[in-house]
Amino acid sequence: QNPTVGFIGLGSMGGGMTRNLQRAGFPLVVTDLRPESAAELIAGGARWAPTAAEVAAASDLVITMLPTPRHVSDAVSGPGGVLEGIRDGGTWIDMSTSVPEVADAVRAANAGRGLHILDAPVSGMSVGAANGTLQIFVGGEAADVERLRPVFEAMGDPERILHVGGNGAGYAVKLMINQLWFSHLVATAEVLAVGVKAGVDLGVLRDSLVASPANSTFVERDVLSILEHGDYDEGFALALACKDLGLSIDLARSVGVPVELSALVDQVFRRGRAQYGDRAGEMAPFQLYEDLIGT
Ligand code: NAD
């Protein structure tokens, strides 16, 4: 008998993740601020609960997939939150791109309750959530990670479910992935603009980068989807990309590492957000350079 999974946050990511849990045979209890986001799941047999507390009370383990640390804190520690419903010894997995402070406070305030808490943020875009091919970076106790592996495997690529360390390590890994990813975007857009202005054909320049040691997934895959399909990945809002860059810089500051490049990338993304809006896709800042490239 599969455990019942409680799932809070049925947006771009949570929508696909829950459909895959359902397909894999996990009974679901779900909630979201937008009830309409659960319609398809309910038609497939999931139960709706009006609050996070009721989700937690009706499930064997609870997953949160929410936009920001503030949303996670509200859904877990706020009125009607997970902590009001979860049983002693219960499990909470936060799969949001977030920071350890929320879970640390929960642990400190509930020391005697034997809660199992893991951070397990993901990469792979909303298409990976829909296809069940996410990469999952788990921070927590090894025994918990093993026990929960079937749950993770329902949502992610089994080869890329990585136990990356103790509590909080998953969050740190995920923030560093996005920091490097967004740095690739800015670095790539700059060199394309300069090379094209210097007279090189855009396609030739891109192919040359792909053939060189400077190749990256951004150069090889995303430049094409931007230039050929105008796809800036609207499944991941630019506002959330800026949230991640801010959290990444906060993390650097908290551990005393100077990050000049990260700060510049953050500013480029904030300029993109001012220009194109919160709901533009995560890769929209590339457009700041497209006029120069002449596409
Ligand atoms: P989203 O905005 O599409 O979805 C978030 C959902 O949470 C919404 O449906 C919203 O109504 C709901 N919600 C907010 N507060 C709530 C509360 N208190 N109780 C119940 N529901 C609540 O966001 P998303 O794109 O699915 O991202 C979720 C997390 O995953 C973020 O931390 C994001 O950074 C991360 N992430 C996103 C992507 C992507 O490609 N979209 C990829 C990797 C990681």
Brief descriptors of the model:
single chain; 295 residues; alpha/beta; Rossmann fold; N-(1-d-carboxylethyl)-l-norvaline Dehydrogenase, domain 2; 2 domains; 6-stranded parallel sheet; 3-stranded mixed sheet; 9 strands; 14% strand; binds nicotinamide-adenine-dinucleotide
Write a brief caption for the model.
Helix content is 54%, strand content 14%.
Percentage of residues in DSSP E strands = 5-15%
Helix count, per DSSP? 14
Helix content: 40-55%
- Low-confidence regions: none
Judging from the principal axes of the Cα atoms, what is the shape? elongated
Description:
This protein is α/β, with parallel strands linked by helices and 295 residues long. The chain has two domains: 5-165, NAD(P)-binding Rossmann-like Domain (Rossmann fold); 172-293, N-(1-d-carboxylethyl)-l-norvaline Dehydrogenase, domain 2 (Orthogonal Bundle), CATH 1.10.1040.10. The protein contains 14 helices and nine strands. The protein has helices at residues 12-23, 39-43, 52-57, 69-77, 82-85, 101-109, 125-131, 142-155, 169-197, 202-210, 217-229, 238-254, 260-276, 287-293; strands at residues 5-8, 28-31, 47-48, 61-64, 91-94, 116-119, 122-123, 134-139, 156-165. The strands form two sheets. Strands 3-2-1-4-5-6 form a six-stranded parallel beta sheet. The protein has a three-stranded mixed beta sheet with strand order 7-8-9. Strand 8 (134-139), helix 8 and strand 9 form a beta-alpha-beta unit. The radius of gyration is 20 Å and the shape is elongated. The termini are far apart. The relative contact order is 0.10. The model has no long low-confidence stretch (mean pLDDT 97). Nicotinamide-adenine-dinucleotide is lined by residues 8-14, 31-34, 37, 52, 65-67, 71, 74-75, 96-97, 122-123, 125-126, 235-236, 240, 244. The site of nicotinamide-adenine-dinucleotide (NAD) has 29 residues, from helix 1, helix 4, strand 7, helix 7 and helix 12. Its EC number is 1.1.-.-. GO terms for molecular function: oxidoreductase activity. Residues 168-288 form the 3-hydroxyisobutyrate dehydrogenase-like NAD-binding domain. Keywords: NAD, Oxidoreductase. Pfam families: NAD_binding_11, NAD_binding_2.
